Amino acid sequence: MVKLRLKRMGKKGHPFYRIVAADSRSPRDGRFIEEIGTYDPMKADNKVKLNTEAAIRWIKNGAQPTDTVRSILSKEGVLKTLHEEKAGK
Question: Which class for 80: exposed (0-12), middle (13-18), buried (19 or more C-beta within 10 A)?
């Protein structure tokens, strides 16, 4: 199963994350299929850069976001867009 999750980057004490689509069996910082965005919790503004088309495509294909990634997608409006697409059909 494919999961949308965070891959930790950056040095100790200064985390930086990439939002990736990865096989659920691969390690947290290991192999991934596609990078769909970044998340920098150390910034005061503009913390998330996200390829919304890729995120929507992965979710439509059955990828399950982790709790943190689900929260990020919700704040960016991706889940709302996906819901509106489903309701419009």
Answer: exposed
CATH code assigned at 84: 3.30.1320.10
pTM metric for this prediction? 0.86
Spatial neighbors of 82 by CB under 8 A, at least 6 apart, are 56, 59, 60
Kindly report, residue by residue over 2-18, the tens digit of the pLDDT: 999 999 999 999 999 99
Start-to-end Cα distance in the chain: 26
User: Which pLDDT score is estimated for 69?
Assistant: 94
How, if at all, do strands 16-23 and 48-50 pair? unpaired
Contact 6, 29 (CB under 8 A): no
Note whether 31 and 20 are within 8 A (CB): no
Q: How many domains does the chain have?
A: 1
